[in-house]
Amino acid sequence: MKKSLSMLAAVSAVALTVTACSSTPEETAKPSAAAATEAPKATAAATAAATTDTDMGLKPEAGAKLVVWDAPDQKAFIESMAKQFEAKYKVPVKFEEVNPPDQPAKLTADGPAGVAADVTVIPHDNLGKMVSANLYLPNDVFADQTKKENAEAAVQGATFNNTLFGYPKSVETYALIYNKDLVKTAPKSFDDVVAFAKTYNDPGKNKFAFMFDIGNFYFDYAFLAGPGGYVFGKNGTDKTDIGLNNDGAVAGAKFFASLKKDVLPVKSGDVTYDIKKGLFTSGKLAMDLNGPWTILDYKNAKINIGVAPIPTINGKPAVSFAGIKILGVNAYTKYPNAAKLFAHFATSQAAQLENFKISGQLPSNKAAAEDATVKNDELATGFLQQLKTSQAMPSIPEMGNIWTPMGAALGDIWNDGKDPKATLDNAVKQIKDTNAATK
Question: Could you read off the pLDDT of 82-129 as tens digits, one per residue?
């Protein structure tokens, strides 16, 4: 991750998501069940295509029946897939509501006990933890298809220790969401943001040009990574190589701190998801650094919204975190063949396109991304553009040790003006100490 892991080889060669999909701290900043868009039902063509995807000769076990866990906003999609799957394979599929961030802990307890779902859906940064606990079967039968059909970063997110385990379903990141009635043209650089803030900000009236979740490293990472910071080396796999206090990260932290004076003169604790939403929907906040999970709230408030890439930082593109939603087959399932078939079936080209139409998720499948329904969606395109310079979050278990020290460090830099280099050095030492203690 020393260099940006490009989420797109080209705009025409990738598919991405517009709903939440990470168990990292940004989960606290979004509603749990809001679909990103209100989309029409899947077309008959998509439904037909979903039932003709190759099954590589794999046959379900006699008497097989499956349970699938997914988020509430995915119920319509999973139930549609279940109906089609049963019609083709004569295997009934039951949907159970479990949010993806909650599934790793639940599978850890329920998998060995034999009471977990056969197919689960997790944020990809949990994959290392799941595989290390022997909770997932490899994606072996459909590995070649999965690798060929999905965006490279999605495949990387579904892979651990050079073995493909997941079935990529969708990808996401955050971007600049702006009120078109207040900002006619999305700013290209943070210099533009600073200039606009000088004319627009009025803290006494709660008017702000730009806001982001200051104390949340998920969003803060964009400021550190653009200048050259990174989490783990070797594409996020080397826990001994932490680049969150290198020269690039320190330069990014200094820029991050400057925004308090120039753009957002508040304490980090004064900015929450609900506060931002209230200001944006009341027409007081002009621009919000946020993810696609907030789109429905802003649409319902009748705000004329646009989505654009995060403005450049000192001439360099902002590098945001990206997350991949993946399906995984429970290692304790009684019906591994049927479960693998469903995981593949529900992440096929046509299935992912159907999910975009039903619940707003952009597909990780490259061919589905070429569909006009996806390419002609203005808001989806904005997130897609940001994903060009996004990095997939590392999926090794040590990623869980990053969030608290980095969030605290950046909070200290913002709130108390602490020295960026010394503060980041201390945070990285904490991370290394925790990694060493949990070998």
Answer: 999 999 999 999 999 999 999 999 999 999 999 999 999 999 999 999
Q: In the structure encoding, which two tokens stand for residue 295, read together?
A: 């789109």
125 with 207, same domain: the answer is no
> Could you please report the per-residue DSSP string of 290-307?
E-GGGHHHHHHTT--EEE
The three-point CA angle 433-401-6 to 5° equals 120
Residue 267 and residue 305 in one domain: yes
Distances (CA, A) of 413 to 65, 258, 401: 53, 10, 20
pLDDT digits (tens, 9 = 90+) for 111-122: 999 999 999 999
- Residue 343, exposed/middle/buried by CB under 10 A (0-12, 13-18, 19+)? buried
The whole domain housing 113 covers: 11-172+322-392
Residue 46 CA from chain centroid, whole number: 25
Instruction: Enumerate residues 6+ apart whose C-beta is below 8 A from 415.
Output: 267, 268, 269
Residue 1 lies in a domain: no
CATH number at residue 432: 3.40.190.10
Residue 101 sits at the vertex; the CA angle it makes with 97 and 107, to the nearest 5 degrees, is 70
The closest alpha carbon to 183, from 173, 171, 197, 172, belongs to 197
pTM of the model as a whole: 0.79
Asked if 358 and 351 touch (Cβ cutoff 8 Å), the reply is: no
Which phi-psi region, left, alpha or beta, contains residue 189 (left: φ > 0; alpha: ψ -120 to 50)? beta
Write out pLDDT tens, residues 41-82: 444 444 444 434 578 999 999 999 999 999 998 999 999 999
| DSSP assigned state of 312 | B
For the chain, the straight-line distance linking the first and the last C-alpha, in angstroms and rounded, comes to 22
